[in-house]
Amino acid sequence: MVSFQEERFSDWHRDAQELFPEHYNELALNRDVIKLELNVPRYEQAERDGMLHIATVRDEGRIVGYFVSAILPHLHYASVMCASTDMYYVKPEYRKRCGAALFKFVELCWKAKGVVKAYISCKAHLDKQDFLEGLGYTFSDKMFIRLL
């Protein structure tokens, strides 16, 4: 049976280890320069500061997806609580069954925490625009990266 829940960093980090390589290989750019290396102390501090939000999808207790975000006041809209996506991933065989449901669950969690505005991104090479617009999100920005 599939379940959705909020989790503490330590539980998520322990159980999501098996998904990280799949996630990284599917989405990461510049893998020759930028290695997969979660900054565990920073995540732990963000959780202590009340800024980290983690939601997971589990099937019979086994993690099959997650959505990690930061919740904090916007820097130039001080009274607006925002959720900024850090990362999300659902195993391919669960996406049709659980993908949209995970996003809807995350939104309910955000609303309960006072979030007014949510920022979700996707990779250009794995465009999720149709999916996100289907959930009610609006395309608003383009982001560019450059290795220095």
How would you summarize this macromolecular structure in one to three sentences?
This protein has 148 residues and is α+β, with helices and mostly antiparallel strands.
Main attributes?
148 residues; alpha+beta; Aminopeptidase; 26% strand
* The first-level CATH class name: Alpha Beta
Number of helices, counting only DSSP H or I runs of 4 residues or more: 5
CATH topology: Aminopeptidase
Low-confidence stretches: none
Which word captures the global form? globular
Strand fraction: 25-35%
Question: What strand line-up does the widest sheet have?
Answer: 1-2-3-4-5
Please give the radius of gyration in angstroms: 15 Å
The CATH architecture can be named as: 3-Layer(aba) Sandwich
Helical fraction = 25-40%
Total number of strands: 5
The biggest beta sheet reads:
5 strands, mixed
CATH superfamily: Gcn5-related N-acetyltransferase (GNAT)
Instruction: Estimate nothing, just give the exact number of structural domains.
Output: 1
Please provide the ordered H/E string of secondary-structure elements.
Answer: EHHHEEEHEH
Whole-number mean pLDDT: 95
Query: How many angstroms does the end-to-end distance come to?
Result: 46 Å
Helix-strand makeup class: alpha+beta
